[in-house]
Amino acid sequence: MDGVLTDSEPLINAAAVAMFREKGHQVQADDFIPFVGTGEDRYLGGVAEKHGIQLDLPEAKRRTYEIYLGLVPEKLRAFPGAVEFVQTCRKTGLRVAVASSADRIKIEANLEKIGLPASGWDAVISGEEVVLKKPAPDIFLAAAQKLGVLPTRCVVIEDAVNGVAAARAAGMRCVAVAQTFPAALLQDAHLVRSKIQDVSLKDITSSRRLRPRL
């Protein structure tokens, strides 16, 4: 979801920086880069560890989401082509799922804002439903189970290094979109496209082995 369907990464980053600032800590936007895609517990907790900050994580996450949700109505956007691509997948009979390390409150707010509400998906898996977050494969395996599809029949679209690693660990094909990280860092995916607008149905339905390329 984050970084694939929506341009939410800058918003959660800004919310997290603001939360730390409210607590009297100056952290940098780049501090969060290693933790993109791992869920907000690790996203916030990893930066706190880096700076030696004692953090009440549940409260910090609550406040971060509060700031974030205040930004969503005016600033959150779907990436060009994202909504249309999901709709095309559904029209052709493909089962579609959102598997996000984020909490349900963030997932539902994002999907509602871009016109792809949670009720319109065959499955929605949040980070609250698995113990191990990306780069562990658990969230994608849970999505496959809810869809009733073997992992080897699934294709993951990812934007983050941790997400690509999780997809590969799950035994799934992975198409990466270089919307958050540069393509050079996503080469463990089977296929890399510059943006979701460039991903075609053939990219995800081809029975041939996908090879990394732009």
Question: What does this 3D model show about the protein?
Answer:
The protein has 8 helices and 5 strands; from the N terminus they run ααααβαβαβαββα. With 214 residues, the chain is mainly α. It has 2 domains: 67 residues, DNA polymerase, domain 1 (Orthogonal Bundle); 124 residues, Rossmann fold. The strands form 2 sheets. It has a 3-stranded parallel beta sheet with strand order 3-4-5. A two-stranded parallel sheet has the order 1-2. Helix 7 links the parallel strand 3 and strand 4. Helix 1 packs across helix 3 and helix 3 runs parallel beside helix 5. The longest helix is centred in the first third of the chain and has 19 residues. The radius of gyration is 17 Å and the shape is globular. The relative contact order is 0.14.
Topology:
Blueprint: H1 9-22, H2 40-51, H3 57-75, H4 82-91, E1 97-99, H5 104-113, E2 123-125, H6 138-147, E3 155-158, H7 161-169, E4 173-177, E5 191-193, H8 201-205
Parallel strand pairs: 1-2, 3-4, 4-5
Helix pairs in contact: 1-3, 2-3, 3-5
At CATH's second level, what is the architecture of the largest domain?
3-Layer(aba) Sandwich
Structural class: mainly alpha
Number of spatially distinct domains: 2
Distance between the termini: 21 Å
Rounded radius of gyration (Å): 17 Å
- Taken in chain order, the helices and strands follow as HHHHEHEHEHEEH
- Average predicted confidence as pLDDT: 93
- Order of the strands making up the biggest sheet: 3-4-5
Question: What's the total number of strands?
Answer: 5
CATH class of the largest domain: Alpha Beta
Total helices: the number is 8
As a percent range, the share of helical residues equals 40-55%
Tell me the fraction of residues in β-strands, as a range: 5-15%
Please mark out the parts with pLDDT under 50 across 5 or more consecutive residues, or reply none: 208-214
Assign the CATH topology of the largest domain: Rossmann fold
Cα shape: globular
Specify the CATH homologous superfamily of the largest domain. HAD superfamily/HAD-like
